[in-house]
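Task 17 of the worksheet. Students: predict the tertiary structure of the chain below and write it out as structure tokens. Keep your answer in the requested format; marks are given for formatting as well as content.
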Amino acid sequence: MQLRRARPICAMVPIPLCLLLSVTSLAVVVAVEAHEATGRDDEYTWPQWKVPLVRNRRTVALSSPGFTAKPQGELNGTCGIECQRRLPDPSLADLEEFLSYETVYENGTRTLTSVSVQGLNEVNTWPAGNSSSSSKSRRRREVYGTDTRFSIADKQFSTKYPFSTSVKISTGCSGVLLSPKHVLTAAHCIHDGQDYVSGAQKLRVGVLKEKSRRGKGGKGKRGRGKGKRRKGEDKEEKEKQEKDGENERKGRKGKDRKNRSRRSAEVEKPSFRWTRVKQTQVPKGWFKGGASDGVAADYDYAVLELKKAQKVKHMDLGVIPSVKKLPAGRIHFSGFDDDRPGNLVYRFCSVSEESKDLLYQYCDAKPGSSGSGVYIRLKEPGKKKWKRKIIGVFSGHQWVDVNGNGAQQDYNVAVRITPLKYAQICYWVHGDSSECRDA
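Model answer:
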């Protein structure tokens, strides 16, 4: 069945009504989170975890990548819940193999680092995945029925926390800020399992700009400095404003009014501040053709280190044993969906099924949102304050081998943060495993 792409609401209504809808959308977001903050508060607290230590064992140089892969719109052949149940539990050696990682640097060089895992037996018992999955086929769920996504087009909202933690990856995906200099995203946005994608050679990350500085001391298109204007510019601008006001009072619908509307749209159009990536780290569990066959989707995550720190609030990682036991089992994430260019798109939905490493849900999404940080909000231990944390990475639409017999069903899937993944990602960010013992 051919799906119709949902048009952004603001493309179909006048600007005042569009602003009203933007405010209404934000009110819905606030209402949803307020609903989750009520009720039995004491039960909804971030659990405390002792996580294992992931330490570097040896680093060797590899040949430079070919950067020949093409970005993937969706993944195929993922081993689903029932399929994974048939796989033997990984040994310590297997886990160390999966968590070993490649690092690709800005100059194109590459290294492979093997790791050791310590203290695995000290970790709180990680529950076995539960599933209410049936063998019934499911319809494609990128967007199904009514499109429940919200475009956060107004910079007043999109550049404020938690939306401000969402970033755009130059290969066409999304990501989330873990620290001022680190971004979490999906591995398949950078590597197809065999080689790095062509755009990963000069990878960049875009953060939404708050407001244009032009006319407020910043530099314009021609590099004019603070307070400097061309002769007569102030007079021209004043005359132009007076003319626009006169046209509006007269109710004119001519060329000047069209131009004014076009200018308004251009001012509201989101813009990005782009930063180069210093290095990229991808777990070996993602690479196909090795010991990770059958579990590659579990390791569909990567961390990008930026060359310049961003002056934007980031979001911490969190570990939760079961999302379905939370209020409504609901998750949230924002990304830059392909069908709404430039706009940040927010959505929330309930998790339908979960395994040890994956979250299966039907959040409406389109390509481009892959790599978004999936988060929830719980109370901090011993405090009344509620805090959002990233509990997963949105991988995207995937065709899943549910029963291990090759039959494919489709879901929208997120990779969940487990204690081991927390330990690895935390080490990548801090470079010191002693800072990563508690989650």
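Marker's comment: DSSP finds seven helices and 17 strands in the chain. Residues 184 and 303 are 5 Å apart (CA to CA).
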